[in-house]
Structure formats: C-alpha cells, structure tokens
C-alpha cells in the first residue's frame, strides 16, 4: 500500500493555540521574557489582569521589553528610553518628544486565558484566532483540585509529541501498558483517541483504565480518565525553535483535598508519575530521527491519519 505522507518538515511552525503558562504563574504587573517559534517575546499582564504577548524588541533602539519593561495600567514602558506602548502594541507616549511617530508599534499576539491557562495564538499568515479550546467545567469546580502541574524543556520537534497519540505499539514497550482497545477520530481541529488499557489500583490489583484524550488544535490535549479518581490531564507543548519545546503537564483530580497535606502529597505523587511517564517518551524523542515515510505494519496505529490531520495546521488558510 502506498500512503500519501503529508510533509511535516521543517522551517515552519503550526498554526494554533499554545499554552505559555498557568494563570498563577503570571501576576498583574509582571513582565517576563520568552522565546517561542524562534521569536523573542515579552509576556506581561496589565494591572487589570489581562495577559499580553508582544514581540520583544522596541521599535526605537531595540531594547527587550521583557527585560525590565514596566507595566503602567494597561500599558508597558520600555526600560531604555521609556516609550510607552498601549495594550494593542501602539506607542502612545514618549516622555521627551512632542510627537509620537505614527508607525511606532510592536506586534501584539492574540491571547486567551481559559481554564486557568494562558495561551497565545500563532499563525504565520496572520489569520484570526479560532475558538476551539473548550471550557473545562472541572476547573474551579467544587471537589476538584486546582492544576497540579509541571513543565519541562525538551529537545524535540512538536510533530513527535503529537504522533505519540496514534502510536499504539509503543504503549507496551515504553509504558508497560497493554492496550485492550483503541479508537481514534479526527474531526476538524480535534483528534480524539479512546483507549482501554491495563492499570493498577490503589491496592496493586490489575484493573482496566479508560481514557479519552482529545487534541484541540496542534498543541493542547485534554484527557479524561476514569478509574480510582476522576482526572483531567493536560498535555500541552509549545515550540521554542525547530528542535526544542516546552512541555506542560497538569492534573485536575476529583476527590482529593488539595488543602490537606495528604491531598497535596497524593497530587504531587501523581504528577510525578505522569512526569515519569512522559519522560519515558522523551528519552526516545530526544535521540530519534523523524521518518518522512515510515515503514509501517498492520499492527501500527492510525499514524497516516494522524499526520494528515496534523498537516492542516501547517497549511496557510486564506484570511
Ligand atoms: S529602545 Fe525602547 S524606548 Fe528606546
Ligand atoms: Fe507515550
């Protein structure tokens, strides 16, 4: 069988929403530098609490707004000569000039804060953001923990992280799980995988675990797991450059009291276990080579379908 393999190579980054942090990690008035999609950025939050992402470099003489920029209300002031930029990126104030050059502007990236996460919209073609990130009712709900989370910087390309969801043959050798059933659906910007695997309960007895994991766009996946505890797992990544990315993982768990020491310990143990699970994959990703045309066999998962789905985020759409 000849597959048509979409090209997922290189020099480009996918279009979509990407998580740049959890809400609690960016306080009102805070400014920090970042680098994503091979672009230097300044991430900040207005005094009223709105997250903002700007291109880093001031159009005046090029200072980095993320290193020493000062938030004043809904504006940010450059650390070098104190030009002030409003929350759309337009320069509105130069303390020592009579006239602001009309083109003085930094690019402001679309942002979204939802479910306790701050996200940015990346589209090389400059298209409008799409609204596909779901509201998770479990976030902030009675009886659920807040996000218990971890972040890691790893050396790989985002396509490897995404391909993992269709790669059923790795569950046994890498994660030690037996896949009892697997189903994948690709619809518009979402890719959903439903699996039943073997797992162990609190007493170490072999049980079955049902997980429904959905990617919303190319970089944000929520998984719902039922079993011992109902759990939502966040798996989100954002490219730093062609070969490095930030991987964020988070847990919302029902039925453990995160205000108690026991609850907190349980949450921490769980996120550590998840972290360990991801790093079983990371150990492979960091050393592997991408295969544009892999040699597959009949027991492999729907890797071609997954790649076709993922390729949509690399194609420019008319805007
Ligand atoms: S470099 Fe930013 S105000 Fe001069
Ligand atoms: Fe995996």
Describe the structure.
This protein is mostly beta strands and 319 residues long. The chain folds into two domains: 25-122, 3-layer Sandwich (Rieske Iron-sulfur Protein), CATH 2.102.10.10; 148-313, Naphthalene 1,2-dioxygenase Alpha Subunit, Chain A, domain 1 (Alpha-Beta Complex), CATH 3.90.380. 14% of the residues lie in helices and 36% in strands. The chain contains four helices and 18 strands. Strands 12-18-17-16-15-14-13 form a seven-stranded antiparallel beta sheet, covered by helices on one side. A four-stranded antiparallel beta sheet has the order 2-3-4-9, with no helix packed on it. A hairpin with a 2-residue loop joins strand 17 and strand 18 (244-253). The radius of gyration is 22 Å and the shape is globular. It starts with 15 loop residues before the first strand and ends in an 8-residue tail after the last helix. It binds FE2/S2 (inorganic) cluster and fe (ii) ion (FE2). Fe (ii) ion (FE2) binds next to helix 2.
Keyphrases for this structure?
binds fe (ii) ion; seven-stranded antiparallel sheet; mainly beta; four-stranded antiparallel sheet; Rieske Iron-sulfur Protein; single chain; binds FE2/S2 (inorganic) cluster; about 325 residues
Task: Give me the oligomer status.
Answer: single chain
Helix content: 10-25%
Give the topology string: H per helix, E per strand.
EEEEEEEEEEEEHHEEEEEEHH
What is the total domain count?
2
Q: How can the largest sheet be summarized?
A: 7 strands, antiparallel
Ligands and ions found? FE2/S2 (inorganic) cluster, fe (ii) ion
CATH superfamily of the largest domain: Naphthalene 1,2-dioxygenase Alpha Subunit, Chain A, domain 1
The CATH topology of the largest domain is: Naphthalene 1,2-dioxygenase Alpha Subunit, Chain A, domain 1
| CATH architectural group of the largest domain | Alpha-Beta Complex
Tell the overall outline: globular
- What is the tally of helical segments? 4
DSSP strand count: 18
Distance between the termini: 36 Å
Spans of at least 5 consecutive residues whose pLDDT stays below 50 are none
């Amino acid at each position: 069988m000849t597959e048509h393999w979409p090209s997922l190579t290189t020099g480009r980054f996918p279009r979509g929403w990407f998580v740049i942090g959890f809400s609690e990690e960016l306080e009102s008035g805070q400014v920090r530098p970042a680098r994503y999609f091979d672009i230097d950025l300044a991430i900040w939050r207005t005094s009223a609490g709105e997250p903002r992402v700007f291109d880093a470099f001031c159009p005046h003489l090029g200072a980095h707004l993320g290193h020493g920029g000062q938030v004043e209300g809904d504006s940010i002031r450059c650390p070098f000569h104190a030009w002030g930029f409003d929350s759309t990126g337009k320069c509105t104030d130069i303390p020592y000039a009579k006239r602001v050059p009309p083109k003085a502007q930094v690019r402001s990236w679309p942002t979204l804060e939802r479910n306790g996460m701050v996200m940015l919209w990346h589209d090389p073609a400059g298209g409008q953001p799409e609204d596909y990130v779901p509201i998770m009712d479990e976030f902030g709900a009675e009886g659920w923990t807040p996000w218990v989370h971890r972040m890691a910087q790893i050396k790989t390309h985002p396509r490897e992280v995404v391909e993992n969801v269709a790669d059923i043959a790795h569950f046994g050798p890498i994660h030690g799980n037996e896949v009892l059933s697997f189903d994948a659906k690709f619809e518009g910007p979402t890719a959903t995988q439903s699996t039943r695997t073997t797992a162990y309960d609190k007493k170490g007895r072999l049980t079955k675990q049902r997980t429904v994991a959905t990617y919303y766009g190319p970089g944000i996946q929520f998984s719902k797991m039922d079993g011992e505890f109902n759990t939502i797992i966040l798996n989100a990544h954002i490219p730093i450059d062609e070969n490095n990315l930030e991987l964020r993982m988070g847990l919302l768990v029902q039925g453990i009291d995160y205000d108690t020491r026991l609850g907190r310990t349980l949450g921490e143990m769980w996120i550590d276990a998840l972290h360990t699970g991801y790093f079983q994959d990371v150990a492979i990703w960091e050393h592997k080579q991408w295969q544009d045309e892999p040699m597959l066999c009949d027991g492999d998962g729907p890797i071609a379908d997954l790649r076709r789905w993922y390729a949509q985020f690399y194609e420019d759409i008319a805007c």
